Amino acid sequence: xxxxxxxxxxxxxxxxxxxxxxxxxxxxxxxxxxxxxxxxxxxxxxxxxxxxxxxxxxxxxxxxxxxxxxxxxxxxxxxxxxxxxxxxxxxxxxxxxxxxxxxxxxxxxxxxxxxxxxxxxxxxxxxxxxxxxxxxxxxxxxxxxxxxxxxxxxxxxxxxxxxxxxxxxxxxxxxxxxxxxxxxxxxxxxxxxxxxxxxxxxxxxxxxxxxxxxxxxxxxxxxxxxxxxxxxxxxxxxxxxxxxxxxxxxxxxxxxxxxxxxxxxxxxxxxxxxxxxxxxxxxxxxxxxxxxxxxxxxxxxxxxxxxxxxxxxxxxxxxxxxxxxxxxxxxxxxxxxxxxxxxxx
Length: 345
Prior knowledge:
This protein is an alpha/beta fold. The protein has helices at residues 5-8, 14-21, 25-35, 52-66, 71-74, 79-100, 108-129, 133-147, 149-170, 175-195, 217-228, 242-252, 267-280, 292-296, 298-303, 312-324, 331-334, and strands at residues 41-42, 48-49, 204-208, 232-235, 256-260, 287-290, 307-308. It folds into three domains: 5-100, Orthogonal Bundle (Multidrug-efflux Transporter Regulator, Chain: A, Domain 2); 108-193, Methyltransferase, Methionine Synthase (B12-binding Domains), Chain A, domain 1 (Orthogonal Bundle); 201-334, Cobalamin-binding domain (Rossmann fold, 3-Layer(aba) Sandwich). The strands form two sheets. A five-stranded parallel beta sheet has the order 4-3-5-6-7, sandwiched between helices. The chain has a two-stranded antiparallel ribbon with strand order 1-2. The longest helix has 22 residues, at 79-100.
């Protein structure tokens, strides 16, 4: 398959590539210099910028070297050949897992990742109950590095926050424990968002929570997911006035807006706010909405012109579609292809 111009476009800085591939900046430089594994372009200021194809190639090379292949022997192979070697190695793992588990066919890598995520959630809850912010931050940062950002968000952050929220509701987690945990999650997600910051001509997404909505974990997860997809994120935080949100879209020439709403204390007010935002946005700018409150008024929100997104995975799929589409894509053309952003505890 012929690569698209978007896949070949240089736009990701080295720190983002390091986070996405699990390779350190030092290893990246060494592989480029010694083996020519990729050839990133440089900005006028000398910053190296990588493409989606570069990242895919580096991910394959890392997996293959982890499995025993020498980088000097595979570093110059075409992408298709690297993918073939990776597929063969994956088949060998499947066969070994099937044989070792009495033919169950489970992928050992999936088992390991599930175990890592479960262990991380348990460690998060222990640290929260101990009010140990240092331990909690260490667990989160270590898990993000081990699993990668997207799996970390989907498999650890979202379920852990839900467990903490449920515990607060039933009294097994105190207000102090919930507040401490939220503060640490906010700090870690903020750092990850900064690490994945995209420069250059990437499409921009404005992310915030609407007036009266002070819970921002869902919005932060959306922002981090979008950054990992190569979007330039303009994160404006919680409880943002409508006029400021609309003004930020115009000032940044944003391609889309994403908002998260958790509490439906005033459903009519939230619905009116969504209508006000939609009316104030250019027709070409989709309004992506989500969170527990939005899900309760999903039909009405859709009728108001919003796109309700159910999960981070659906959000990422929508962002990929928007990035590949013409800038004139409007909400009428996208309506019906989406549902809710992410429900935050």
